Structures
1.
Amino acid sequence: MAVKPEEFNFAKNDKFRTAMIPGKMARYLRTCKLWQFIRFIILNIKMLIVVSKSH
């Protein structure tokens, strides 16, 4: 019986019994330079908002 792609993330292993393996989309977003740059800008804007409220 073949393992479905969705169930592969939950496959048990001797080393990690409940550790999830990231899917294709998660791996792509973690390695995409453009997406990382966009996240960087968004996080900086959020930090500026928080800091500006405290001063």
Note: The chain has a mean pLDDT of 81.
2.
Amino acid sequence: MLTAREQVKFLLLKEKMTVTELAKEMTAHTGKHWSRQALSSKLSRGTLRYDEITAIAEILGYEIDFKKVPFK
């Protein structure tokens, strides 16, 4: 299973976007100032909140989908 950091990095690569560009989009999307360093730090530490992850997904053109898995 990929970490949030690995997943975001993968999607950034796929969408040809840098962390700096994502930080600028996050600022526009959330109204809160985001720097490249702040975003990178949260990704590295694994401290992004759910609303921040959903904002990243929206910016990159994705949605988060929870699926029920069979109980083992």
Note: Residues 4-60 form one domain.
3.
Amino acid sequence: MSQVEESIEVKAPVRAVYNQWTQFEDFPRFMDGVERIEQRTETLTHWKTKIAGVEREFDAEITEQIPDERVAWTSIGGEARQAGVVTFHRIDDTTTKVMLQLDHDPEGLAEAVGDKLGFVKRQATGDLKRFKEFIESRGGTETGAWRGNV
């Protein structure tokens, strides 16, 4: 199992940043390699990815969700094995620190080599930068929100 930890500061209030992160079907707009996410229930999402030519489909279950604080998940079934948590930290009224912790299990030789070369870490860093650009380009306004607790 490999681990990635990344963070970024976003020029938007914590509520807007958290709300945007709960809009899983928007992830393909800023996550490279994510082709589609379907929100099937309040706690179940279905992912279709294509990263470095490798296609995967899997379900992910939201295991914990606390508004303005954290979203945690784990994959279930399918080919991808991962778990993670994103936490949201208020810096001030207009700035939020987003922290990502991701545990993943590379599948096969190509993914293991890519992981050793830092591909997953670079992917996470890029995705967080694109998330920042996405919400900041909208003036800190989210596309939607889900404020429930899990």
Note: The first helix runs from residue 14 to 21.
